Amino acid sequence: MPILKADTTPFDGQRPGTSGLREKVKIFQQPHYLENFVQSIFDTQQELAGGTLVVGGDGRYYNREAIQIILRMAAANGVAHAIVGQGGLLSTPAVSCVIRKYKTQGGIVLSASHNPGRPDEDFGIKFNTANGGPAPEAVTEAIYQRTTEISNYQTLEAADIDLDQTGQSQLGGMQIEIIDPVTDYAELMQRLFDFDGIRNLFKSNTFSMRFDAMHAITGPYATHILEDMLSAPSGTVINGKPLPDFGGGHPDPNLVHAHELVSMTQGHNGVDFAAASDGDGDRNMILGRDFFVTPSDSLAIIVANAHLIPGYQKHKIDGAARSMPTSQAVDRVANRLGIECFETPTGWKFFGNLLDAGRITFCGEESFGTGSNHVREKDGLWAVLFWLNLLAVKQQSVATIVQEHWREYGRNYYTRYDYEAVNKEAAADLMQHLRNKLDSLPGTQIQGHVIEYADDFSYTDPIDNSYSECQGVRIGFIGGSRIIYRLSGTGTEGATLRVYLEAFEPDPNKQQQTTANVMAPLVSIAQELAQITQKTGREQPTVIT
Ligand code: VG1
Ligand code: CO
Q: What is the mean pLDDT of residues 289-313?
């Protein structure tokens, strides 16, 4: 099969953001756009030639077309072996699992995660390295640099591969293996959690659960693991069929977008436990009856209870890490356990070195992401199984587990305000104004609160000393409250301003207030400090989580 060398010219803006390159489908469909990015991966990641590459995506619109393009290019670029999920499907944590299990040289994930999918919505591509994790900044930067100078790419003239039959086939000099997307991942979960204990929980008839796959990638995973392997009643998984448009929804597991699920937990007949995952299966939302567990609390509770879970009780936990805007609840647990706790920039790629070096066992982000050293991505279904295992051991409700945790460690009230699709210049100007006044803020008072520190977060990786700056403005108050401002690196329209608010309450008698009430003073301070309405024209955020 002859290799074709196609001429091309660079596209602007192919720099990966927080989690890969994300753009509107229409942008990806331009001739050579995807090809340029993929060739830049092959040009910079030379171990892929002669090696094995994992390819899969969340099934969104354009997933199959993109996979065919990538496979032809992989073959033309000398990749020896490709492992592809059946139907082009693989969740993000499953890609990580497969890369690690088969010791491949890397993988390509097609997804725009929690963003909607349709011809007029979003698509994305991300390269994961041989450790199974998202490429670190040095790698994404090298790929980006290559996209700015690219002049040709290599492909094959060949018919499409049948993605729907498992088994082996050949494309030019490359062998392709289509695998069941669930098997390897399910086997890993079985090794970490007490499946017998969880099965008994489902058999008890006093426990009910719903899992909302939001018509995204976790449908087949959750159906197989929960309903087939763990004997949960059929119907436990809802919206379980992956659809290219996610059923018209927004596959973001939060109180706003997963409202169908939230309503199933409410009132007298509400289920005991509910969970949801996002487009590519790396996020999770955990709910009890009439109860929402913040992702930051979930991380803290996971670390505090790890000794109860088979996969984590053999030896002491190495340490924990959280992204900077994530609440400090986990810090308190780490402190009590006498383990290290790291604060990293937003994005899973910053956990990779710490996990590889054995410095942390668990890590998480406020954005509905939790995970451990079992893979190198955040893992939605893993978090759900962790909670199920915990419920089986403790025989308590979700609410009781969380409230007892607060009594012991204090409660970190937490909320995030997102202002989406704001004018880009206005958002940049808002951040610049904040940065300009950082030095003058410490010691000053605003609406009765004294500012203790104000900085722009930067991070030096303790393993390889790589340095990342401008990772978000932090304003800390005496008493432990924090306000954080940063601009999203995953949006595809204008800019998204995220404002993260946290307030600490050690007194058990004051831990039952509503988050909205507790946060009201901080919301008002956040407004005044950044002049959000004046600068963006927005009176209200688009989404509150
Ligand atoms: C968001 C979240 C971040 C997460 C990233 C990718 O990034 O805040 O915590 O790691 O999405 O998640 P940003 O830059 O928009 O704030 V996913 O599920 O899109 O892979
Ligand atoms: Co995701």
A: 97
